[in-house]
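An instance as discussed:

___
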Amino acid sequence: MFARVAKMRFMPSVARRLHLPPTESDIPTCSDLPRADFLQNAQLAEILFITPPDDLLLTVIFNPATVSQKAWIVYVDFILLTLLQHDPSQADTVKSLKKNTDKALNDFRIFLEPSEINIQALMLLGCHGEQYASPNLSWMLVGHACRQAQALGLHKIERGSYTQQQRQLALFWSLFSVDKSCSLAFGRPMLLPTASYENVPLPDFQYLLGYHPHKAQPVPTPSGSHTSTFGAHFFIQVMHLAKLTGAVLNTLSSQGTATDSETLAATLQSWDATTNEAKMTIGVRAMRFQYLHILILLLRKIPNSKDRRVQAARDAIMLLPGLISNYNHVYNGLVWQLLYYPFTPFFTLFCHMIDHPSAPTTQQDLDLLTTTAKYFNSMKQLGSLPAVSYKLEKTALVFCNLAIFVTSGEYSKDDAQDLQSTATATSLEDFAIVECSSEERIHFVDASSSEAGSASFTDAFMAYLQDQDYSAQSGVDNTDIENLLSCLDSEGPSPHKRKRSFENTMDWFSWDTYYYCKDE
């Protein structure tokens, strides 16, 4: 009974979001699929994931309707999609693979019956699937994977062979890290509490020597083959950072003292000093970017730390050009780290500029805001989640233009009242605001002290944009702009705000529902 109810409540909503064809039969894929390429790529992740045996792989590819565990279809077809999606000659195959994946996701057992293959399929989609990269879907997929890991006791090493135990530990810790990253990105509680799992052992270093997704075979050297240890060290450091992230999340959601936060910040900086000694590969840059993102959030709990917070934001944004990547890159971070994390340093710097529009660093900071918008443009051009990157670029550009407006002299407090009156007179008539409840509007958390008096320059900015015909030039209409600027409401109770798990994170779920999906 519960399964039927859950299917009725959950799966149709997913189907609507994914535009699934609910009555289509499984479509066999064509016979020239790169089976060898699939196996080669799947083997790169064998320290985490189970690779299907040959007979099951062939069944998934050529007769998917007979596969009982639909998660295998999701897992295999998603990897094949990654391999084939940019090959024009495989367009029909890609279409079939997408249909098979969508139909497989209509099987509620993937979400309700805990199994290792279900976990790895949900985790793969949630972390790397462009079609599933929206905040709501990412959160749901990762959430189901975490609950299944808890139900299975994935972290326990009491059964199975040594290899099975180590693989399950590696999968658990990877999911643990994903959970912390997801919580930081979207301002939601952890699903795998750090206190419950901090004493679970990491996989053995010797086992982790198999973690080198950049190269499947040992590196040949004059003295013989050599197995790189970078992947093993990288994995371990990422998990140490995940544990620290959990501690930070606990601090952000509690009433801890400034001393506790200072101690944790010192531990974070010690971790950074250790890892920053390594060569600055994209993986290390991605880890450092995560570190700065966590540090910015933590410093909000420490009095008189604004200068440190702003500098950390500058340092983080300066890393963005080195993080531009797509599915061809390894160690480049999870999808929401690449897409949503950049807005934490972005808004930190933006709010600093609104508070100090005439500071000597204004031009440098404006350039950094522009760097963020260019980052999303470059991600789009590289084919990395282009639809999401495009809308995030437009979101960043709205705030870039507001920062330019406030700091350039177009807005002055002396004539703010006149501008506000003009804006009010025109906006009510000309700006078509969607009528909906306060819980349905796109809104954000308190944006530091820069909210004070922000209503006047927000209205003035809207009037200025109308004069400049900005919506025609940018493709962003006035309703979008007003919704995105709603984070600048004045302090105090407001129908345009939703309480977040911790301060100053964008309400990505409202953004997702009323902006990301707007044109779908």
Q: What stands out?
A: Residues 1-25, 27-32, 413-453, 487-501 have pLDDT under 50 and may be disordered. Residues 1-152 form one domain.
